[in-house]
Amino acid sequence: MALISKCPLQWISCLLYWHTMIVYFPTFLLQAVESWLVDRAVLPIENSLGGSIHRNYDLLLRHRLHIVGEVKFAVRHCLLANHGVKVEDLKRVLSHSQALAQCENTLTKLGLVREAVDDTAGAAKFIAFHKLKDAGAVASSAAARIYGLKILAQDIQDDSYNVTRFLMLAREPIIPGTDRPFKTSIVFSLEEGPGVLFKALAVFALRQINLTKIESRPLRNQPLRASNDTNNGSPKYFDYLFYVDFEASMADQNSQNALRHLKEFATFLRVLGSYPVDTSMI
Prior knowledge:
This protein is an alpha+beta fold. The protein is built from nine helices and 16 strands. The chain has three domains: 2-75 and 162-169, Periplasmic binding protein-like II (D-Maltodextrin-Binding Protein, domain 2, 3-Layer(aba) Sandwich), CATH 3.40.190; 78-154, D-Maltodextrin-Binding Protein, domain 2; 174-276, Alpha-Beta Plaits.
């Protein structure tokens, strides 16, 4: 995750920082936007190989920020080491857990012990600072330039189609339009009962609105609930929040009607943002 200012060019280039910045306290970045220290934050939300980044979904609800854009970024992992170190010298490799998972086949073939750290750039900085001879890092080519490391191997990810989706967050929402494709992200909760989730999703299907993502996360303040409070022997259920992305703008009357319908039986509903769809790959 990275911080950026208002400049659109910085919004694009900052995606590189997720692979080159050390991020120990992700919540600090969103707090910095809320506190007017910076104007925007960029949050990685899902990867085509590693799946959803659950911690960041939780952050979307915890902070009162709005999604104002998205970018899908092709990830290219490299195996880095200090100069003079060869692949056969390596015993272990450091990186973010998702990066290690995305390079599992290559790292297994090399017989390297994997050690997870906070992020890819942090791994590169660690082996450079400590001048390690038996350890490498999975990180970007930009991290190699920044920390003076040698690239032992490029494109070591298991799948060439390795894409991370990022969200741009701001204090104020943008005004949604209908002049180009838009996506809207919402989060809601429901009462326990048969077919309740089906009914919730049906409000979109009935209006021919396509869903592109659905993610469930535990409702932390009340994780367990009995089906009948008056019966101590009744089964208990986990309460969940449902994060949904759908292909429509909040300026579209169809979307407004769908959410109005959803509000009839949702116990909680919040629009996280309505923003232009990223239709190109960087």
